[in-house]
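Lab meeting, item 3. Inverse folding demo.
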C-alpha cells in the first residue's frame, strides 16, 4: 500500500456575524439572551462598574480596576475560578467593562474548554467604538501590549449610550481617540461632524453622542467585515496612531491611558504623513486644530520612543500613512509602509517643537 505524501484539510470558515444592540438596561437583556440560548451566564466585571450596575444575583467574578489585570496570571486565576465553580462549555461569559475587561474576558473565552461564548457590554466610549467590535482579545506581557491573544468574536455586543454619562471627563475626552481615528482613516463626513458638533460632544449631548458612536461603530464593523483576521491588509488601517501610541503607553508604564497615548500617536503619525508629502498642510492643520481644542493634556516624553515601537519580522516599523482626512495610502493593498528612523524623528520634532 502506498501512502500519499500530502493530505489536504480544507476548512471553510463559518460565517461570522453578531449584532451590536444599542439601547438601555442591557445587562438584564444580556442575561436573558444567554439563558434563552441555553447558556449559563457568568458575569465578569470590575468593582467600580459593579457599583453602577443593578444588583446581579448570578455567577460573577469582580476584579480590581486597571491595565495590570490584563495579564497571563489573571487569566489563569479566572480560569481556575471558573473550573472551581463547575463551568463547562455551556458557559457564556458576560464581560462588562472597558477595553481591559473585554480583551481579557474575550481571551479567556477563546481558550476555556477550547472556546466558549462571550457577550461584550462595553462601558467606556473607547471600548464601545473599538474593543467591543472585531474579536481581538488578549493580554499584555512586560515587553508589549496584547502580545498573547487570539481572534475570538463575541456572540453579541450590547452598547448602552447612557453609560457614557458616568465617565470621568478625562476618560471621556481621551476616549474620543478611536472615533477620531475612524474619521481620519475612512470618513471625512464623520470628521466634519466631530468638528461641527464639538461643544455638544464635550457636553455629552445624548443625541449627538448616539450619532457619533453609532457612526464610529459602523466604520469599524465595515473594516472588520472586509478583513476579519487582519490577513488582507485593510484592518491594519485601524492601527493608525497606534504604532507610536502603544509605544508611548508602554513607555509611560500605563500612566498614560490608551486613549491619551493614541491621541498623541495620531498627531505624530499625521505629522509624519505631512512631512512625507502625503498629507496636505491644510489637512494636517485641521487635525492639529481639532486635537489642540480637546481638553486633555498631550504631554510628550523627552525623547522619541523608538526602542519601544513594535517591529515586523524583518525588524522594520510599519506605518499607516494618511493621504487626507478620510483616506490612507493603499500601498498595493498592504496599507502600511516601512519608515526610517529619520522619517519618524522628523515627524516627532515637527509636533514637539512647532505645535
Ligand atoms: N483595535 C484594532 C483592531 O481591532 O484591529
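The presenter then showed the designed sequence:
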Amino acid at each position: 500500500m502506498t501512502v500519499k505524501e500530502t493530505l489536504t484539510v480544507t476548512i471553510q470558515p463559518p460565517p461570522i456575524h453578531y449584532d451590536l444592540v444599542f439601547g438601555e438596561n442591557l445587562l438584564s437583556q444580556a442575561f436573558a439572551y444567554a439563558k434563552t440560548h441555553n447558556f449559563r451566564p457568568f458575569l465578569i466585571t470590575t468593582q467600580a462598574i459593579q457599583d453602577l450596575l443593578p444588583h446581579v444575583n448570578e455567577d460573577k467574578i469582580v476584579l480590581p480596576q486597571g491595565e495590570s489585570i490584563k495579564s497571563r496570571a489573571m487569566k489563569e486565576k479566572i480560569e481556575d475560578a471558573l473550573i472551581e465553580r463547575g463551568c463547562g462549555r455551556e458557559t457564556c461569559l458576560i464581560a462588562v467593562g472597558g477595553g481591559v475587561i473585554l480583551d481579557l474576558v474575550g481571551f479567556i473565552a477563546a481558550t476555556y474548554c477550547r472556546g466558549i461564548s462571550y457577550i461584550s457590554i462595553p462601558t467606556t466610549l473607547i471600548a464601545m467604538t473599538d474593543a467591543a467590535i472585531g474579536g481581538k482579545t488578549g493580554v499584555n506581557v512586560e515587553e508589549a501590549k496584547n502580545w498573547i491573544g487570539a481572534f475570538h468574536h463575541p456572540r453579541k455586543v450590547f452598547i448602552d449610550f447612557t453609560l457614557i454619562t458616568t465617565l470621568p471627563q478625562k476618560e471621556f475626552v481621551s476616549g474620543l481617540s478611536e472615533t477620531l481615528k475612524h474619521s481620519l482613516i475612512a470618513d471625512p463626513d464623520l470628521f466634519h461632524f466631530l468638528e461641527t458638533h464639538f461643544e455638544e460632544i464635550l457636553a455629552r449631548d445624548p443625541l449627538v453622542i448616539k450619532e457619533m458612536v453609532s457612526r464610529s461603530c459602523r466604520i469599524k464593523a465595515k473594516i472588520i467585515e472586509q478583513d476579519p483576521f487582519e490577513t488582507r491588509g485593510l484592518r491594519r488601517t485601524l492601527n493608525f496612531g497606534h504604532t507610536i501610541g502603544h509605544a508611548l503607553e508602554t513607555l509611560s508604564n500605563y500612566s498614560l491611558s490608551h486613549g491619551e497615548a493614541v491621541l498623541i500617536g495620531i498627531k505624530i503619525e499625521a505629522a509624519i504623513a505631512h512631512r512625507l508629502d502625503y498629507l496636505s498642510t491644510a489637512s494636517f492643520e485641521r487635525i492639529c486644530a481639532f486635537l489642540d481644542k480637546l481638553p486633555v493634556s498631550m504631554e510628550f516624553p523627552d525623547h522619541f520612543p523608538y526602542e519601544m515601537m513594535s517591529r515586523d519580522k524583518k525588524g522594520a516599523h510599519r506605518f499607516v500613512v494618511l493621504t487626507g482626512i478620510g483616506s490612507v495610502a493603499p500601498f498595493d493593498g498592504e496599507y502600511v509602509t516601512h519608515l526610517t528612523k529619520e522619517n519618524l524623528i522628523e515627524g516627532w520634532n515637527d509636533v514637539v517643537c512647532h505645535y
